[in-house]
Amino acid sequence: MMGMNDRSDKNHFFKREDNCFETFTLIWLETNINCDQKHEDIEEKLRTTINHIKKFDDLDKCKKYIEEASKDNKLVLLISGQSGQQLVPLIHQLQHISAIYIISEDKNNKTWARDFPKLKTVKKSLKNLTSQINEDYARQRRVHESECFNMFIGINEGGTSTTSINGQFVFSQLLIDCLLRLTSNEMDKNELIDYYEKEYEGSCVQLAKLNEFEKDYSPENALW
Hints:
The protein is of the alpha/beta class. Helix content is about 45%, strand content about 15%. The strands form two sheets. It has a five-stranded parallel sheet with strand order 2-1-3-4-5. A two-stranded antiparallel ribbon has the order 6-7.
């Protein structure tokens, strides 16, 4: 079988874009973000809830990325205190900013933070802040997934509908039927793996699952 690093065909159907499949993107701005094992461990923990992470050590580049990001992708910001005081007033009004978290030992940052409703908390410990983000967005993800699988129209003028079927439900059934009829081949599998290698770059946990998928997947055992 072709190895994960041996695929030579670069004309893939999947193109690496920043408008990924994830609902949320975590923007992490910190001057020494790539300097030690602690940051790598924190990133791995964050990826259990928000996989798509963009890291910056330059405020201007971070601001530019935020302003140009797809408005369909909700951004979660993790920023060091000094950078946050400069950046937050400039981007807080953007609709695709979902929440902002500040890491700082300076108590003064809690004072200016009160002026910005999207700023959820200021914490001294990066570990504690990571736990807070994971808790908040595990809940958000459950809500989002629930909305995606909403199957029935709720209440109309005549009360609760028991006969009207949501068009999205019909579409989902047709999509599932089409997918079941598709035949797979090795090229399709390699394109999928190539895309997710890039999507989960830096996530040891997810890449291990992807490696397992590459070794063990077969159409007869398609539920993963």
